[in-house]
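User: Fold this, then the next.

Assistant: Folding the first:
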Amino acid sequence: MCYFFIIIFQQGLSSGKIIYMLIIVGLGNPGEKYKNTRHNVGFQAIDEIAANFQFSIFNFQSIFNAQISKGQIANEKIILVKPQTFMNLSGETVKTLIKNLKLKIKNLVVIHDDIDLPLGKIKISKNRGSAGHKGVKSIIKETGTKDFIRIRIGIQPKEGKPRNVEKFVLRKFNKEEEKILKEAIKNSSAELAKLLYFNEA
């Protein structure tokens, strides 16, 4: 299984069998106020994956303080996660998931917006700092490590990085930008599928 987008989580059963579980966490802020804002690109990417591959309806699970959806791609079991803690506390959900599901932090995959990348550009990173992203910073703080995969989706406008980033990321996209973002999110979902099917061959 390729480690660029997803990583296999293994849990032993009493029967001796192994469950291969993939978990993808999209970052964003809950509530209508923040829907479709630049900071919620992670949520949009997760929704796209869920829709494309007919995952279960998202259900709120209080133990994780997150919206959870389950499904399969290329015979791999996958859990999609949208933390409901607000961006700055995303690490609390991730930490609880890892503890309760007995997963390894090095296998974590996080999808989030990135103000340092041009709008629509996708970049995969691992074992690097938060670069000022508070959701990623929270995850690093709560788990005590940065050794996890990140799928970064660019939101920087063509005019360049704004001076007041905190206010900018809470704004919505204009119509031209929405078209670019929509295509980027579709491409990220398609690439995920390609990787899964390719590695099953």
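Now the next one, as you asked:
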Amino acid sequence: MPCSGRLRYTWESLTDLEKGEASSAAEIVTWAVNTFGTSFAISNSFQKEDMILVDLASRVGGPFRVFTLDTGRLHEETYQMMETVRERYGIAVELTFPDRSEVERMTAERGPNLFYGSIEARQLCCGVRKVRPLERKLAEFRAWATGLRREQTEARAAVRKIEEMDGRLKINPLADWTQAQVEEYTRHHQVPVHPLYARGFPSIGCAPCTRAIQPGESERAGRWWWEQGGPRECGIHFSPDGGVGRGEPAAKNA
């Protein structure tokens, strides 16, 4: 498909990655859908930002895909959101699962709730249930989009709207959006909202590893709340030490 709008990215030139910084979220999503079609996907954990991306893409009128990482430990309300997306947008969310043998080996050796034991154990679990499944899924696409925003955490402060990573484009159309913009778009366009937001969950992941936050806490304070210090990242966007790029600690049993 021909490129649209101001962005005319080709695999021979990275100049349009710079142009992307000056483009709006709607322009970037329109360009991605029209350029890549079904080789473009939105990674959806059903938080407000991800749902905005689905809403924006659905307004373009072209084909695109939506996938989620089903770790086997998700909230029941998250599965309800998958059906909501189907009903509202006519999109069947593609579920991406971890390798069964890896999960069985990990839980047999470390227990089903190993993540409470140490940061290393939690990162191991995230690697098996999220990082590796994502890497396998991304092999199907030339470009994918996330709901990352710069103001969410210190580690995300430098995220770019369009970047090349591992031979494909990673697109973060909402990188420069504020929380107020997220709320306004969601309200104005009546974008479906995950039920856990009403219970104080501004960041939603696996059920055992996510809790509601208290007044004054940061947006991601409910993620792995028992850990002291360190970045609150699972490894699918940033390495365990908070650096740019996916990663996980090496482990013999995974």
